[in-house]
Amino acid sequence: MGWFGRKSAAVPAPALPTWLGEATAEVFPLGYEARLKEVFVRNPVGQRAVRLVAGTAGALPIDAVEGKARAVALVKRPGLIEGIVAHLLLHGNAYVQVLPGRSGPGELFLLRPERISIEPDALGWPAAYLYRTGLKTARLPVRDALGRTQIIHLKALHPADDHHGLGCLDAAAAAASIHNQASRWNKGLLDNAARPSGALVYEPEDGATLSTEQFARLKAELEQQFAGSGNAGRPMLLEGGLKWQALSLTPADMDFIRLKEAAARDVALAFGVPPALLGLPGDTAYANMKEAGRALYRQTVLPLMERVLQGLAAGLTDWLGKLKLAVDVDQISELNEDRRALWEQVNAATFLTDEEKREMLGFGPRKRAA
């Protein structure tokens, strides 16, 4: 006889969703690929932060302040800047191979940083880069036979390493793991009738206990008929001294909600993105969003782009001569207020001549009429 007034049907237990990934008992992931999956592939905050910074950097207008404009066409190849910035954020290193053309550099090709190892010379300076694809390894010298740069290595700051940069994955891995675990917790609650579990108490009048067979059958019936979101609200019919005791979450158990928000903020902080731009609660007022947009450019995107453009220009100098690349900040709408304030200050400086004012604002000398 079934414990709930009817015979239980042999319904298989639902399989664990594959998107949950590894077991929740795992510690913080180790290794680049494992942390990449935890922080970028599976975590919405980390993925959005990287895409926001990399996408914003890739859409910036770039000019050749000094040197050939051909370099701008090479650098602005679709996806190149976005990929470089993403690798710098995640891995801390970006490797760009300069492929020769008919008369100078033909293309800039972005390499996977986790596949590259550095071969130093006798003095410890990089002599070549070893690029592994499967079982094959290609040796790419730093310079070709004509002394021109073949591999442009861009790296983030790493005080403890001479050859490699440090990405943001290590700093964001713990917070991303906590955030993902909180999401799995919520999914677990949903799978268990969208409410905390309870206890089925057996209190017979004669004080007897359940046999092993009765206990196993009772547990199976609970999992098959009353667990899962599809069985939420199904009434129980108890008999034989059984009584259901519901358990509620304590304030300490509910603290995981605030913990998840704090973890999301830590992930955003690791990648230099203001939390307001990621839709985190508490900072989404219009004024905060406006200031957050300016902060993203001033504190994260523009300094990172300056490092990238300086490295690319230095690597292309061997091919195209003296070169300097820069972002045209006058075309960034989020910085209009900063630019307007600068113009007003310069215009109010009566001790400056018109030519000096033009130079301070980035304009060349006024053309003289012939």
Description of the molecule:
By secondary structure, the protein is an alpha+beta fold. It folds into three domains: 1-29 and 197-247, no CATH class; 31-112 and 146-190 and 253-331, no CATH class; 337-370, no CATH class. It has helices at residues 32-41, 44-58, 70-75, 80-90, 169-191, 212-225, 251-254, 256-270, 286-320, 336-348, 354-360; strands at residues 62-66, 93-101, 104-111, 116-120, 126-133, 136-141, 151-155, 198-202, 242-246, 324-327. The strands form four sheets. The protein has a three-stranded antiparallel sheet with strand order 3-2-7. Strand 5 (126-133) and strand 6 form a beta hairpin. Helix 1 crosses helix 5 (169-191) and helix 5 runs antiparallel to helix 8 (256-270). The longest helix has 35 residues, at 286-320. The radius of gyration is 30 Å and the shape is elongated. It starts with 31 loop residues before the first helix and ends in a 10-residue tail after the last helix. Mean pLDDT is 81; it is low at 4-25.
